[in-house]
Write a structure and sequence with these properties.
Blueprint: H1 23-37, H2 44-56, H3 70-81, H4 86-93, H5 97-100, H6 105-112, H7 114-127, H8 136-152, H9 155-169, H10 176-196, H11 200-214, H12 216-228, H13 230-250, E1 255-261, H14 264-274, E2 285-291, H15 294-307, E3 309-310, E4 316-317, E5 330-335, E6 341-348, H16 349-357, H17 376-394, H18 398-408, E7 415-419, E8 425-429, H19 434-441, H20 443-447, E9 449-454, E10 457-459, E11 469-475, H21 486-489, H22 493-506, H23 508-526, H24 530-533, H25 536-545, H26 551-560, H27 565-583, H28 586-596, E12 602-604, E13 609-612, E14 619-621, E15 633-637, E16 643-647, H29 651-654, E17 664-669, E18 681-690, H30 695-705, E19 710-717, E20 722-731, H31 734-745, E21 750-755
Helix pairs in contact: 1-3, 2-4, 3-4, 3-9, 4-7, 4-9, 6-7, 7-8, 7-9, 8-17, 8-18, 9-10, 9-11, 10-11, 11-12, 18-22, 19-22, 23-26, 23-27, 25-27
Length: about 750
């Protein structure tokens, strides 16, 4: 196809009919769109699908009040704009009939054939997925189903993407919290998938719509600022387009030149990644040159670099080194005659098609039965999907799968290109190290790696790979395998997964034993009777909750840090409590009430505590919550050590098993004990502060001024720079403590102060 024959359709957005358009008008639009690219005149299948769907949905309305049939028609129009085969368009019209109407899949298969039924079934299953953020397990499981559906027939996800795009266009009719939820889900899952499949037409619109609802202030601010300078910018772009067109003609290169403003999300992404304001981003718009051959691309580049001064380091050759989604173009940033920088993209018509339509480009003119036939390039695009399906097999932990997937689908991530010794190109996430490179070649190379050379020189393993680096990995058979430290060095999802897999398989036995030890240690620390909760029924609950096949896998996961021993043990304790609650009889409750109705006897204690109902008993203050006069307190009858006094908000008291609650006893402070000359009581507070020089000095100064003796002080600092300072000291009571806390809060950098509660 010559450049002059380029369809104008290619450079326009996907058709978005106005709200409340009549279904019949939409249907006419759809047929026009199909006839524009499809050589066959036979639209009987599409017509039949429309009539059946219109009849099935006739009573239903959308949130906006429109007839429901508008939605499947709009989805079909989007797919017709992507020039999909007729089976996909028919499935799009029918994608909600099985779920929302009385029509069954068998009826569908009879009327339209097995291929359409398979597509509808795939989309229906995906629609039923719930993406609520708090239900991580469900979300991960659903994602697994989605990728399996994609592997069966990629057109399932294409229909789903079109469905999501139309829902995002009509999101204004949803509740605000629903809008945010849908937009977040779009940005995290659907838009990256469209990106991976190379369908920039859909990706770009999904990104901008999601930004509109997630960051409305940013979106409208960008929109306003960009439209302010619209006239001057359009004049600038036009002058460049005219100038470039004239030079191309003089050089004898047949080319189509046009200019466009970059979409909002890509500008926002640049602002976030580079920490810049809008004024600092110079390539807000791009000029695109479309030519016939690859040879013309490079010839056009030569002409351009002769016309304008290129900015060093801003040239990218995606023709020689395509992106993972098969995107190809030459990108160069230049300085205009007025000193204004701008970007030019040069590509062939075929590359433009692939850039806009991605994987959807492979279905042009295909008839029934051949929809799944994959060409070589399509196979390359699908390698990403195959990798994810491999992860699925390897991973028993859903949470891990989800976090890996989300980091792999990260929209904000940039790429870096490097070479193997034989000259093959590797595409890795920005910030990758030689370890990432080693694992991208093969897991065996990564596991046996002992060093790396970059451009012939030895480098440390945490070296950050730069564009164009040539890497060579040094391996040794004596290597004991990857180190745990590598997990914090590597950037790529693939490398993290392979390192984790190695630890899981190689050290499974060690991990199981370590898991057992950690559980035993935790139970000992928390005073939990492991023998009581170590029962198959409770184990089953844990395995189901965290999606593990057997108990050894749970222990191994605790051993290598995938699961926390506290999660497992607390879950089993809860299940045990539930069972005990069920076993409580009416008689037990009546007896307890009878006991509690007895007249209590009060007794004064040397400790300043009035304990009700018990004579001559040793009273001690618990260290877990350190009660002081003024606190609400409760006594706990210990085994052999008298009564321990706790605050009523103490975690250990709140989480007390039901069978132990019978040991709780009323206690209160003696009335005269709040005098300033009275007894001092040990207590503990936790201070959360921004880490800075002199923080300890400022804190101790407050204590000194108030003549309060600090008995111990410790601190730890997180990677984020937040210091947690634990201070133990003596005080007369709550009033003095509150005054002290108020004073401490005034110190610069203090975020929060709380008392320890167990």
């Amino acid at each position: 196809m010559s450049v002059n024959q380029l369809p104008t359709k290619l450079d326009t957005e996907l058709e978005a009919p106005a709200d409340f358009t009549s279904p019949d008008v939409l249907y006419e639009d759809l047929i026009k769109s199909i006839r524009r690219y499809h050589p066959s005149d036979d639209i009987s299948l599409v017509e039949k699908a429309y009539h059946i769907a219109a009849d099935a949905h006739k009573e239903q309305k959308r949130k906006s009040g429109e007839p429901y049939i508008i939605h499947p028609l709009c989805v079909a129009i989007i797919l017709a704009d992507l020039e999909m085969d007729k089976e996909t368009i028919v499935a799009a019209i029918l994608h909600d009939v099985v779920e929302d109407t009385v029509m069954t899949l068998e009826e569908l298969s009879r009327e339209f054939g097995a291929e359409v039924a398979l597509l509808v079934d795939g989309v229906t299953k995906l629609t039923q997925l719930s993406w609520s953020a708090d239900k991580v397990e469900i979300q991960a499981e659903n994602l697994r189903k989605m990728f399996l559906a994609m592997a069966k027939d990629i057109r399932v996800i294409l229909i789903k993407l079109a469905d999501r795009l139309h829902n995002m266009r009509t999101l204004q009719y949803m509740r605000p919290e629903k809008q945010k939820e849908k937009a977040k889900e779009t940005l995290e899952i659907y838009s990256p998938i469209a990106n991976r499949l190379g369908i920039s037409k859909i990706k770009v619109e999904l990104d901008d719509l999601a930004l509109k609802y997630l960051e409305p202030d940013v979106y409208y601010d960008l929109s306003e600022k960009i439209s302010l300078k619209k006239d001057s910018r359009e004049a600038f772009v036009k002058s460049i387009v005219d100038d470039v067109s004239a030079h191309m003609k003089n050089a004898g290169i047949e080319a189509k030149v046009d200019g466009r403003v970059k979409h909002f999300f890509s500008i926002y992404k640049k602002m976030v990644n580079q920490g810049k304001t809008l004024d600092q981003i110079y390539d807000l718009f791009a000029v695109r040159i479309i030519v016939e051959t690859v040879k013309d691309c490079y010839a056009a580049l030569g002409v351009i670099h002769e016309m304008y001064k290129p900015i060093p380091g801003r040239f990218k050759d995606y023709i020689a080194m395509p992106k993972p989604n098969m995107y190809q173009s030459l990108h160069t940033t230049l300085i205009g005659s007025s000193g204004q920088p701008f970007e030019i993209q040069i590509r062939t018509f075929e590359m433009h098609r692939t850039a806009e339509y991605g994987i959807a480009a492979h279905w042009k003119y295909k008839e029934s039965g051949s929809g799944q036939a994959a060409s070589g390039r399509e196979e390359e695009k699908m390698s990403w999907l195959r990798q994810i399906l491999e992860w699925q097999k390897d991973m028993s932990d859903n949470k891990e799968f989800l976090s890996l997937l989300k980091s792999d689908l990260d929209l904000f991530a940039d790429s870096v290109y490097c070479f193997t010794p034989s000259g093959d190109v590797k595409n890795l996430p920005s910030g990758s190290t030689p370890i990432d490179f080693a694992y991208s070649i093969h897991s065996a190379v990564g596991n046996k790696m002992v060093g790396a050379k970059v451009n012939g020189k030895l480098v440390p393993i945490d070296y950050v790979i730069q564009n164009g680096d040539r890497l060579e990995i040094v391996t040794s058979q004596n290597s004991k395998g990857p180190s745990r430290d590598w997990l914090s060095i590597v950037k790529s999802t693939q490398a993290k997964n392979k390192i984790n897999q190695w630890f899981k398989s190689e050290l499974k036995e060690d991990n199981i034993n370590r898991g057992k030890e950690l559980i035993a240690q935790y139970c000992k620390t928390k005073g939990i009777n492991w023998a009581e909760i170590n029962k198959p029924e409770y184990m089953e609950k844990v395995m189901r909750r965290y999606a593990y096949r057997d108990w050894d896998a749970v222990l191994a996961s605790i051993g290598h840090g995938g699961l926390k021993e506290s999660q497992v043990v607390n879950r089993m304790v809860e299940e045990n409590k539930k069972k005990k609650v069920l076993n409580v009889t009416d008689d037990t409750i009546l007896n307890e009430i009878g006991e509690n109705n007895k007249v209590p006897v009060s007794k004064k204690s040397k400790s300043g505590i009035v304990v009700k109902g018990i004579h001559d008993v040793a009273v001690r203050f618990s260290r877990c919550c350190s009660p002081v006069p003024g606190d609400e307190i409760v006594g706990f009858v210990t085994r052999g050590r008298g009564v321990s006094i706790h605050r009523t908000d103490c975690i250990n008291i709140i989480n007390l098993p039901d069978d132990e609650k019978a040991r709780l006893i009323d206690a209160e402070w003696q009335q005269d004990e709040n005098d300033s000359g009275g007894e001092r009581y040990s207590t503990e507070i936790q201070i959360y502060a921004n880490n800075r020089i002199g923080m300890f000095v400022d804190i101790s100064k407050v204590f000194t001024e108030r003549q309060i003796d600090i008995t111990s002080m410790s601190a730890r600092t997180s990677k984020q720079g937040t210091a947690t300072i634990t201070v133990t000291f003596d005080t007369h009571g709550v009033e003095e403590l509150n005054r002290l806390v108020d004073k401490l809060r005034m110190i610069e950098g203090i975020q929060d102060i709380e008392r320890t509660t167990g």
